[in-house]
Amino acid sequence: MSSKSNILSEFELFRGNGGGIEAWFSDDIPDTVIDVLNNCEKHPISCEVLNQLLILSHEAGMSHGFFEFYFQYDPHADGASWYDPKKLPEFDPQFISSTEIKSLKHLKWGLRRFYMDALLCFGNIRQAYRNLRNLQYKEDIRAITRRSAFDTEQMKKRGNGLPLEQIARDDRYLIAEIACKTYDPADVNLPSLTEFMKERFKQQISAGKKVMTVRDLVSSVPQQDKYTMDQLSFSLDEVLDRQIQTEDEIANAIDPIHAKFQTARERALKNTKLYLSMISDLDIYVATSMRRRDDFRAMAEFCSSVFQAPNLQDLKLRYFDPTRSAAVGHEDKGLIECLMVKCAKVLIYNAGTSDSFGKDVEAAMALSLGKPVVFFCDQLPRGNFYRAVHPLSRLINFSNGVPVGAIVTENQLHVTELISRIFRNEMELELRKKSGDYFLLVEQLTDSTIRLQTDDLLLRETFWNYYNPSPSVAH
Question: What is the pLDDT of residue 469?
Answer without folding.
Answer: 53
